[in-house]
Design a protein that fits this description.
CATH architecture of the largest domain: 3-Layer(aba) Sandwich
Bound molecules: nicotinamide-adenine-dinucleotide
Number of domains: 2
Mean pLDDT: 92
Helix content: 25-40%
Largest sheet: 7 strands, mixed
CATH superfamily of the largest domain: Aldehyde Dehydrogenase, Chain A, domain 1
Strand content: 15-25%
Number of helices: 18
CATH class of the largest domain: Alpha Beta
Shape: globular
Structural class: alpha/beta
Number of strands: 24
CATH topology of the largest domain: Aldehyde Dehydrogenase, Chain A, domain 1
Oligomer: single chain
Length: 541
């Protein structure tokens, strides 16, 4: 009797095991190896699947790897399964890349980089393709926002009004730069002309996290494509769906085959293969500091150009002359938005001792008033679930650490509901600089509040971690605001706001929060090389 047709192979890194999968466990290890060890099993997953989201949105979801403008199966048949963090139900499996698929994607990107349809394209036409893509993303706002809400758990209203509108704006912003990539002339006297050409780097590997799937994809694709590079982009294994759908729109926008290749896959397989690939000229990464370190090592194999955007433990300083109401509102949204899963979250608030008790009272009241937890598809919801069970358990472990260290639990600190990964918004006060909950990135709805008396103390506490991503200063003293902003070790400082970034300004960190800048004109530098051309205008040596 023929064996039942296996539906998938689980890789050693698979986190989500679909009940519909026939695995060695079900066959029995020895039986599996006897029957299947000489050839890989090709799985029965289709390349597209009709999905119906919890809000009724119908989606013709691509499941394949997007290589050369086509959705294809992974060579090994490997898949990964994505779950709804609200109730842990399975959404779908998608094909997962490993190093052989990365090889194919890199070959496609390399061929596209040299093909006349991309390398000789008029820069304004390159910009037009990005405008086309922006229009298609805008037209599909509801569908794409639905996918990110379903896959990641962020409130639909936020996905639409913040993530999707930012993604469209970023694509348009870089579309406009496509025909404005200017070199320089350098005056060194009459006998010689020097000019620079700002040329694309080549094939760029881009590795993104799960907290803003589409935003992270467009932040990276926009400047890379505007400057004429080609791309192999890997989504996070927790949130592959919207980024795969973007592949469909990239083809529809008219990009030539191979210019953008999108892979779903695990970090330790597909991500590591991208970082170490000798056919990739640059790697741009957003994710944790620990992963950035391993990418940096792997990228040394061919001395890749690198941009790393990593974690943070961003401080928000409140001086006693600040507008308290504003400081409370920004302080709350600065940590609790996106379920605290924001790299620039102002997760530490430092309050001057003269207003310390009042501030705590008011931010507690604001948190209790605003934080409606629940179904992210409901209009009323402010806070959805944490992205995965593993991440949820990690955040809960920091709550225990805070209690054990002697911090005061002001509110929250509990699980919420009987299914899904919900955590009540948690605030600890009386947090000392050296506490673990003050030093380590929690990446959840988790705020640590500490106290200072002088400006010097505030700056010292603000700079006391290994991170340096964002920082906020609340004061009505304009001189003090600028003085403190200059002394804080961070890539971005907001005065009287929090996490108030803009795509036209550089975004990046110092210390262990990253290397290089994304966004703004600065990102154009990150995706080009300045080639110096020396022209001898004299007649002899
Ligand atoms: P992560 O580092 O585990 O994963 C991020 C991406 O890297 C994923 O696509 C993953 O598959 C891939 N990856 C994992 N291991 C890899 C490896 N060995 N080689 C190559 N790729 C690998 O991070 P995460 O936990 O998924 O994301 C949360 C982290 O991202 C937080 O620390 C947060 O601060 C950070 N983040 C930073 C920014 C920023 O701009 N600075 C933005 C968003 C998130």
């Amino acid at each position: 009797m023929p064996l039942p047709r296996p539906l998938a192979i689980l890789t050693p890194h698979s986190k989500h095991i679909s009940s519909s999968l026939l695995t060695p466990r079900f066959l029995g290890e020895s039986s599996f190896h006897r029957r299947f060890s000489t050839s890989r099993i090709i799985m029965a997953l289709p390349l597209f699947k009709e999905l119906v989201a919890p809000n009724g949105q119908k989606i013709n979801q691509p499941l394949g790897l997007f290589i050369n403008n086509e959705f294809v199966k992974s060579k090994s048949g490997d898949t990964l399964t994505t779950l709804n963090p609200t109730d842990e139900s399975e959404i779908t499996a998608v094909y997962a890349a490993n190093s052989a698929d990365v090889d194919d994607a890199v070959a496609a990107a390399r061929a596209a980089f040299h093909s006349p349809s991309w390398s000789e394209i008029n820069p304004s036409e390159r910009g037009q393709l990005l405008y086309n893509l922006a229009d298609l993303v805008e037209k599909n706002t509801h569908l794409l926002a639905t996918l990110d809400t379903w896959d990641m758990g962020k409130p639909l209203s936020v996905a639409k009004e913040e993530d999707l509108s930012e993604s469209v704006a970023v694509l348009k912003y870089y579309a406009g730069f496509s025909d404005k990539i200017h070199g320089r002339t350098i005056d060194v006297g009459p006998r010689k002309l020097i000019y620079t050409l700002h040329q694309p780097i080549g094939v760029c590997g881009q590795i993104i996290p799960w907290n803003y799937p589409l935003v992270m994809a467009t932040w990276k694709l926009g400047p890379a494509l505007a400057t004429g590079n080609t791309v192999v982009l890997k989504s996070a294994e927790q949130t592959p769906l919207s980024v795969l759908y973007l592949g469909k729109l990239i083809k529809e926008a008219g990009f030539p085959p191979g210019v953008v290749n999108i892979l779903s896959g695990y970090g330790k397989t597909a991500g590591a293969a991208i970082a170490a690939h000798e056919g990739i000229d640059k790697v741009a990464f957003t994710g944790s500091t620990a992963t950035a370190k391993s990418i940096m090592k792997a990228a040394s194999v061919n001395l890749k150009n690198i941009t790393l955007e990593t974690g943070g433990k961003s401080p928000l300083i409140v001086f006693d002359d600040a507008d308290l109401e504003q400081a409370v509102k920004w302080g709350h949204s600065g940590i609790m938005s996106n379920m605290g899963q924001v790299c620039t979250a102002t997760s530490r608030i430092l309050v001057q001792d003269t207003i310390y008790d009042k501030f705590i009272q008011e931010i507690k009241a604001q948190t209790e008033k605003v934080s409606v937890l629940g179904d992210p598809f409901s209009e009323a919801t402010f806070q959805g679930p944490q992205v995965t069970r593993q991440h949820y358990e990690r955040v809960l472990s920091y709550i225990e650490a805070g209690k054990a260290e002697g911090a005061t639990l002001v509110c929250g600190g509990t699980k919420h509901g009987d299914k899904g990964h919900f955590i009540t918004p948690t605030i600890f006060s009386d947090v000392k600089d050296h506490y673990k909950i003050n030093q380590e990135e929690v990446f959840g709805p988790f705020l640590a509040i500490g106290k200072f008396s002088t400006e010097d103390e505030a700056i010292k506490s603000a700079n006391c971690t290994s991170y340096g991503l964002g920082a906020s200063v609340f004061t009505n003293d304009i001189t003090k605001a600028h003085r403190v902003a200059a002394k804080i070790e961070a890539g971005m400082v907001w005065i009287n706001s929090s996490q108030d970034s803009h795509y036209a300004a550089p975004f990046g960190g110092v210390k262990q929060s990253g290397i290089g800048s994304e966004l703004g004109e600065y990102a154009l530098t990150a995706y080009t090389i300045a080639k110096a051309v020396h022209v001898n205008l004299g007649t002899h040596l």
